[in-house]
Fold this protein.
Amino acid sequence: MAIVKWTPMDVMDDMDRFLDASWMPMIPQRIMNPAMDVYEDKDNVIVETPLVGIDPSKVNIEIEDNILKISGQSSHKSEVDDKSYYRKEVRYGSFYRAVSLPKAVIGEKAEANYKDGILHITVPKADEAKPRRISVKAS
């Protein structure tokens, strides 16, 4: 029996080819959903998301009811004719992502930094979300 190479079916590639078809001009631009890492330290909830090649001034960040929303626009400026691509996987256009934060936070004190293509958001935890040490009194 011969060994046959297994190639998984990539539904997203098939869907992209369908949506990119020239006979579908009425479909709006696809919206990208950037990946996120959400973690915490003692005092903050921290969110990191890669936004490589995106102008930080075109990124909108909102926190409302412990839901972090990141949106913006990435543009593609290329002189290459679409017909000469062998594979086109880099996505351009609008992006949006909303995630519920795991702890109560103080959204007004959030800070965002963009370095080396990574958006780093630090949001202080609300006092009720921080662990408290309670001493036991003997009587």
